[in-house]
UniProtKB/TrEMBL annotation:
This is Cns1/TTC4 wheel domain-containing protein. The keyword tRNA-binding does not apply. It comes from Alosa alosa (allis shad). The keyword Repeat applies. One of its GO terms (biological process) is protein folding.
Length: 403
C-alpha cells in the first residue's frame, strides 16, 4: 500500500520536482535587483517611507494615479474637465475613438463654466464620431461647438466635412463660407467648398433628370392605362384584396377581385408580367398595344413566351414562326405543325373554354366579354386537333367557339 501511495504522489507532481530544480539555477527576470532592491522597493506606494516632493507621472505612475484618485474631489470642475479632455486626447491618439468619446462626454457632463473648454470638448468629440462614421452625431457636436463659439475654425471645418459625407452639399457650402469668413486662406475649406459646389450642381442636375424621367414615365403610364380602358380590356388582380368588415362596399367586387376598366382605377402592377422576363404591355408610337403573351402546351408541360405581341397581329402569324420549318425538341412525334393546332382560352371565373380561330387578332380576344388578362399576361392553351390528349383534356368541359 505504501508503494502505491508513493507512486500516486509521484504521478501527481507531474514534473514539478524537475521544474523546481531548474528554477533554482535561473534568476527571475522581473524580480528586484540584488544591489538596488531597497531603492526599487521604495518606489512602490505601499512601502514608501517618504513621498517624493514632486510626483512625476513618468517616474512614479502608480503614485500619480493614486494621488489623482484621492484628490479628485478636491479639484475644480475646470480641472476635472481638463483632465478628462487630456484623457480623451490620449485615447484619440491611440485611435481608440469609442473610449475618447466616453472621456469627452464625461468632461461635458461636469458643471464647468469654461465655455472655451466646452467648445474644445465638443469639437474633439465630433472628430471621434467622424472617425467612427457617426456623421449625424459628429455634426450635432459641431453645431453645439459653433453655438458656443461661432468663429471656431475646427468646428466649422468639421461641420462642413460631416455635411459632405451626408451629401448635404448646400449645408456644406454654408459651413465652408462661415469658415472662410474667419480665415479666407484656409486651404482645406477652399478645397472643400470647390468640391461641395461641384457636387451640389451635379446633384441638382441629376435631380432634374430624374424628375423629367419620372414625368415622362407617368405620362406614358397614364396613356397606357387610358388605352387599355378605352379598349375595355379587363384585368385581374395579382392578389386577392384583404377582406373587409361585413357590408363593406368592396364586397361587391367579388373574391377574385376582378376590376373592369372604367369601373375602378387600373393599377399598374397588374400590368407587369409574372414571367421571368418581367415584361409589361406597352403602347407604341402609333398607338398600338403590345402584350407579353404566354402559350401553354399541357400535353408536354411546356410553354412559349412572346414578349411583345401586337394587338393587331393574329395568332397564325406567330404560330407559323414557332411551328414552321423547325419544330421544338419536345415534339418527338412531330405533330405540332401549325396547321394541326387548336387554340383556347379558359375563363378566369369558371372552367369554360373558348376556342379561338388562328386568324383572330389578339385585340378581339382581349375585348371578349369572357376574357380577363391575369397578371398582365394574356394566356392561351395550344393542343393538337383531334389528338387523344386533346379529347381527354376537353372531356366534360363546355367549349365555345370564338371566330
Amino acid at each position: 500500500m505504501a508503494s502505491l501511495g508513493q507512486q500516486g504522489g509521484e504521478d501527481s507532481d507531474d514534473g514539478m520536482d524537475a521544474f523546481m530544480d531548474k528554477f533554482k539555477t535561473q534568476k527571475y527576470k522581473n524580480g528586484f535587483n540584488e544591489s538596488t532592491w531597497e531603492e526599487e522597493f521604495d518606489k512602490i506606494p505601499m512601502f514608501m517611507k517618504k513621498a517624493p516632493a514632486d510626483i512625476d507621472p513618468a517616474s512614479h505612475p502608480d503614485l500619480a494615479c493614486i494621488q489623482s484618485i484621492i484628490h479628485d474631489d478636491d479639484r475644480t470642475p475646470e480641472e476635472k474637465a481638463q483632465r478628462l479632455k487630456a484623457e480623451g486626447n490620449e485615447y484619440f491618439k491611440e485611435k481608440n475613438y469609442k473610449r475618447a468619446i466616453v472621456s469627452y462626454s464625461e468632461g461635458l457632463k461636469i458643471n464647468c463654466t469654461d465655455s472655451e473648454l466646452h467648445v474644445v470638448l465638443y469639437t474633439n468629440r465630433a472628430a471621434a464620431h467622424f472617425h467612427l462614421g457617426n456623421m449625424r452625431s459628429a455634426l450635432n457636436d459641431a453645431v453645439s461647438a459653433k453655438k458656443l463659439k461661432p468663429n471656431h475654425l475646427k468646428a466649422l471645418l468639421r461641420g462642413a466635412q460631416c455635411c459632405m459625407q451626408l451629401r448635404n452639399y448646400g449645408d456644406a457650402l454654408q459651413w465652408c463660407d462661415e469658415g472662410l469668413s474667419v480665415d479666407p486662406t484656409d486651404k482645406k475649406l477652399q478645397e472643400l467648398r470647390r468640391t461641395a459646389d461641384k457636387q451640389k450642381r451635379e446633384a441638382e442636375r441629376d435631380a432634374r433628370k430624374a424628375m423629367l424621367k419620372e414625368k415622362k414615365q407617368r405620362e406614358q403610364t397614364e396613356a397606357l392605362l387610358a388605352a387599355i380602358k378605352e379598349r375595355g380590356v379587363k384585368l385581374l388582380r395579382v392578389q386577392k384584396p384583404a377582406r373587409r368588415a361585413s357590408g363593406s362596399e368592396d364586397e361587391e367586387e367579388g373574391d377574385e377581385g376582378r376590376v373592369a376598366a372604367g369601373v375602378a382605377e387600373l393599377v399598374l402592377d397588374r400590368l407587369v408580367s409574372k414571367e421571368a422576363t418581367g415584361e409589361r404591355v406597352f403602347l407604341d408610337e402609333n398607338g398600338a398595344l403590345h402584350w407579353p403573351v404566354l402559350f401553354l402546351y399541357p400535353e408536354h408541360r411546356q410553354t412559349d413566351f412572346i414578349s411583345a405581341f401586337c394587338e393587331t397581329s393574329n395568332f397564325l402569324d406567330h404560330l407559323v414562326v414557332m411551328f414552321g420549318e423547325e419544330l421544338p425538341a419536345w415534339d418527338t412525334d412531330r405533330k405540332y405543325l401549325f396547321q394541326n393546332l387548336q387554340l383556347f382560352f379558359e375563363e378566369a371565373e369558371s372552367e369554360q373554354f373558348h376556342q379561338v380561330a388562328m386568324t383572330t387578332p389578339l385585340l378581339k380576344v382581349l375585348q371578349h366579354s369572357r376574357y380577363t388578362v391575369k397578371d398582365g399576361t394574356p394566356c392561351f392553351i395550344v393542343m393538337v386537333t383531334g389528338s387523344p390528349f386533346s379529347k381527354q383534356f376537353l372531356s366534360g368541359k363546355k367549349v365555345y367557339w370564338l371566330k
